[in-house]
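Re-run requested by the PI after the first attempt was lost when the workstation crashed. Everything re-entered from the original request form. Ligand of interest: acetyl coenzyme *A.
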Amino acid sequence: MAEDIRRLFEPRAVAIVGASRNPAKIGHKLVDNILASGYKGSVYPVNPSGGTVLDLPAVPSIDAIDDDVDLACIAIPAKFAGEAVRACADRGVPYVAVITSGFAEVGALAEEREMVAYAAERGTRILGPNIFGIYSAACSMNATFGPRDIQAGNIAIITQSGALGIAMMGKTRAENIGVSAVVSVGNKADIAEADLLSYLADDPATKAILMYVEGIQDGERLVRELREVTPRKPVLVIKSGRSRRGALAAASHTGSLAGADEVFSDVMRQCGVLRVDTIAEALNLSKFLATSPRPRGSNAVIITNGGGIGVMAADAAERFGVGLYDDLATLNETFSDAVPAFGSTRNPVDITGQGTVDDYRRSLDAALASEDIHSVICLGCETALLEPEPLTRTLESVAQRAASDTPVVMSFLGGAAMDVVVEELRPRGVPIYGDVYEAVSALGALYAYERRPATMTAPETPADIDGAAIREVVDSARAEERGFLLAHETRALAIAAGIRPPASAVASSMQDAVRHAEAIGYPVVLKVVSRHILHKSDVGGIALDLEDRGELIAAYEAILHRCRQAVPHAVIDGIEVSEMVRSGTETIVGARRDPSFGPVVMCGLGGVYVEVMKDVAFRAYPLDRAEALTMIKEVRSYPLLLGVRGESRKDVEAVVDAVLRVGAVLAANPDISDIEINPLVVYDEGEGTRAVDVRVILDDPGSGGDA
Ligand code: ACO
């Protein structure tokens, strides 16, 4: 795929359909930007009236070009664009960037689909429509109508929003960041993020990838691609359009808890992608991740001249997952010569308000020379002792020396003097920020990237799931045109899936009931089984916690008596004898078909308050055991499973197992849209779980797969 998509990023010849002599037109700006960017391939303006555009002869049509055009940019109105795309496809142009607006985004979906289908049949891929174009540093090509002078660098940007993309290009220029590629994907009628990632992963100039996403179409493919890319380079995502569609369409807890945004966040974390909220944050973090060395370990040290900012940084470190080094003896040994006697060698290392530029240099040198210190947060508040000019020189030289093996972030606060230091150093690539939080969050992003999930081992599907039995249950419900499974079907499905519901059997006589109870083991529960009695407890049709044979016999008779009195006409089919489920920790485990990501699994705190607490986590399926465990650990109430107040640790492995089983059942059965176990009662380690209530919802056959 990377080889295939290469021609989009490194075309040998480019045609601009709609190239114009009029400098106000987009077709003119495209030619101007391509020429100004130093593109070395051939450029062919296409305009039916001929003449020249920026001194290049214009050809009347794409057919008139006697060259291998790899990329054609379409910049003519929508009513003509379809015809122009078809001409490019007939001509065998592999990539067509449709700049033109006026397709699906204004309701013209059919025209858009028709254009893409025609092109696809001829092997032509469409970028857009509704885009500003593509910039690629690999061949110095600015085929956009955005800024003319884009600075080459090492961040790749893929953006769904045109205007934001153009703004980001401007910002990278102002911040002296530099980009390796900028691709506007617009309506994503054909080419989407997943198509572009493999090229960017291979591209040596690209050190970090930033995506602005509004909606995901083929989430399963995107997940696969991201999992391939993130071990090689950091990927950051800004996601807007926090849709409620998924939640509204949902028919179960799992669904209503699966707000599209929560699922997106969790799945991105699963893929090792860092999610950010603002453009400024995205650019700051991308720049830092693209340029910083990787930390050798987790020991960070704060060096400061002010106690207050040191404490703020320590708070921020905790929030952003930066581990502060706390070996007091080593810290003292490392910093005792650099820190004045009235300062502190603890972490934060405090050179005090009396600290000079020289004190900074000595303490930073000591930190960089230490084998035990793996990253540095250098902070300062303006004092009369900090001369901006020597401070700037010292910090720049420290940043240069650290560049090969120790991540360093800096923040200096105060008035104009400190602003000068920050403004001078930032464009020179020094990771210095006007705010402590910004500095620590950059280091936190680096550590979050380091902690990304390991590459997935083979996806785990429990081998003992009885697929044929599950299929049979689903087919029988389908045959009756039901969208859900009945209690006995759900039970059969759970057993076939290896998920243990409470043991149970229906007795037709007292002797039968005794036999079943003895096989199940006391205590047991009795429940009347009658199609005429819907609310069993209202008529005294249930007896709980029966400890022995005597209690069982008495309860059996009492149930029959009460039911006959309350509903004299009721046909009693039998009495169900069930295991009395011991109390344990209540969890919820489920799987559903997400509109963006396909099969997703979830787990969380279960019970009746599940929708209030919303303490759940999600993952795209397939996943391995390690990732299922990571998901469980993300649930806020996870410590309940570790045992609180002297309780023993619960059987977390059995919860992992249940997650993998519901995921496997959903993935293997396209007819099932939701499976939910709530509560899944978890017992002490080694004692397993009980699926007390299981619900299974079938997909609406007419919905085309969406739950
Ligand atoms: N082949 C080649 N050239 C043609 C053809 C054709 N079939 N038909 C017309 N042309 C020529 C025209 O004669 C004109 O050249 P001229 O100036 O020499 O006469 C040129 O192509 C452009 O055609 P116009 O009709 O003048 O179209 P105009 O430039 O006004 O608009 C455009 C075309 C820019 C594609 C417009 O329809 C459009 O979609 N604009 C929005 C673009 C956009 O916003 N995209 C999303 C970007 S992301 C963001 O939000 C920033």
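Saved to the shared folder this time. The chain has a mean pLDDT of 92.
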